[in-house]
Amino acid sequence: VIPESIRQRLREAGEPVAEGVAVAAEFLQSFETMPEKVVGIYVMPPSKKYYMVEHLLERTGLLHRAATAVS
After folding, report:
1. 16 near 10, Cβ under 8 Å?
2. What is the rounded average pLDDT of the residues 31-43?
3. pLDDT band, residue 59 (cuts 50/70/90)
4. What is the model's pLDDT at position 41?
5. b vs e for 16-50, b when ≥16 Cβ sit within 10 Å of the residue's Cβ?
6. Rounded CA separation 8/19 (Å)
7. CA dihedral 65, 50, 33, 67 (to 10 degrees)
8. What distance in Å separates the CA atoms of residue 71 and residue 63, rounded to the nearest whole number?
9. DSSP alpha helix (H) spans, the chain
């Protein structure tokens, strides 16, 4: 369920897609302050727009961390 405050934020945004990415980035970044460790995430882009996942992970810094964790 998407909270009404987020739905309102998206409705009022001049660029709803960019705002949606911003909301998702804020959500992912909030994991860093959790006392429990998050060991994985599953991101489902709208309409098979997989490039958005890369953009989101770049924006949060998670793409770089994932790349260095694998190597």
Report:
1. yes
2. 81
3. confident
4. 83
5. eeebbbbebbeebeeeeeeeeeeeeeeeeeeeeee
6. 11
7. -10
8. 13
9. 4-12, 16-30, 51-60, 62-70
